[in-house]
């Protein structure tokens, strides 16, 4: 198992996390993924990358360093994104009742080690 | 409908000016009929806007409905009219605990214990808060502890920020800003960590964020988007949409737990909605 796959495995084991993937932040392409059936990894990658890029620009215009974690909360769940170095972004899709605190910690820890 | 609710409903119908709404609202809340309980409490508050019991009741109902920012406001109102209102102190303590601010939760419980040292539930709550250390905050995990000096920060009205007179609160409060869908600032201000006004520049970058968030959330089957929390080493950003065509950005120092920033942002969003309504 590669480092990337081990990382995704650990994040996906958090209760309520439906899947996770490693994407390229610039072009929104999937580098590695571990998703439940029926979840389109390419769509998540493209959308998450685009959203993170916009928020990155807004954060930088606010005079702050690039985001370390992004949480989009929807009515029926969440998208979590942890941008790392080397243009990689770790993304997870979680259910409403997921343990988001644990997912966040795992993701931040994981991107730190992937860098 | 149970007998007690029938009786209380009849009593309130006979004597609309009575305080029966307090019992009726609480009975409905306990039965889980939260919408009905909310209407009863609101009706009572329209007659008795300075009654701490009524604000306390509303706080409990809103808390059960999951409107934590609303519950916070209601309990803060209850304390304004009755600073010794134990239910409100316990309620606010619970909200601080949920937001990951253990010192503030303990401070409110300490005040409650001073008022009624014989209430065993207060001691139990203190033990639970101390034992948990950090609350299982919904949303984001809490981070560093909030400095003692700013424990009461959420109690200060946020309208100052929405109506354009941002409180000078050091740079811990970077500001709050309402922007429209075209990236134009409607109100509020935003400062960089270097104290530069960056409101217009940030507003411009936020132009497409709401649409992007909607698209992402919808296509992933998450329904509409509710909030975006962004962590950065020098500041946390929290975005909500008070209306479909506006966004409210609140930026605070990273020492403020994100879950608590969320409560502040939700309350500010309600004020922003009211402000927008008054300017249409």
Task: Write up this protein.
The complex is a heterodimer of chains A (115) and B (280). By secondary structure, chain A is of the alpha+beta class. Chain A has a single domain (3-114), classed as Dynein light chain 2a, cytoplasmic (Beta-Lactamase, 2-Layer Sandwich). Chain A has helices at residues 3-12, 41-61, 100-114, and strands at 17-24, 30-35, 69-74, 77-83, 88-95. Chain A has a five-stranded antiparallel beta sheet with strand order 2-1-5-4-3, sandwiched between helices. In chain A, a hairpin with a 5-residue loop joins β1 (17-24) and β2. The longest helix of chain A is centred in the middle third of the chain and has 21 residues, at 41-61. Chain A is globular, with a radius of gyration of 13 Å. The mean pLDDT of chain A is 90. With 280 residues, chain B is an alpha+beta fold. Chain B folds into two domains: 3-132, Serine Threonine Protein Phosphatase 5, Tetratricopeptide repeat, CATH 1.25.40; 148-278, 2-Layer Sandwich (Beta-Lactamase). Helices cover 53% and strands 12% of the residues of chain B. In chain B, strands 2-1-5-4-3 form a five-stranded antiparallel beta sheet, sandwiched between helices. In chain B, a hairpin with a 5-residue loop joins β4 (235-240) and β5 (246-252). In chain B, α2 packs parallel to α4 (52-65). Chain B is globular, with a radius of gyration of 20 Å. Residues 134-171 of chain B have low confidence and may be disordered. The interface between A and B is large, with 37 and 46 residues.
Summarize the topology.
The complex is a heterodimer of chains A (about 120) and B (about 280).
Chain A: H1 3-12, E1 17-24, E2 30-35, H2 41-61, E3 69-74, E4 77-83, E5 88-95, H3 100-114
Chain B: H1 3-14, H2 20-30, H3 34-47, H4 52-65, H5 68-81, H6 86-98, H7 102-115, H8 120-132, H9 159-162, E1 173-180, E2 185-190, H10 199-205, H11 209-219, E3 225-232, E4 235-240, E5 246-252, H12 258-278
Antiparallel strand pairs in B: 1-2, 1-5, 3-4, 4-5
Helix pairs in contact in B: 1-2, 2-3, 2-4, 3-4, 4-5, 5-6, 5-12, 6-7, 7-8
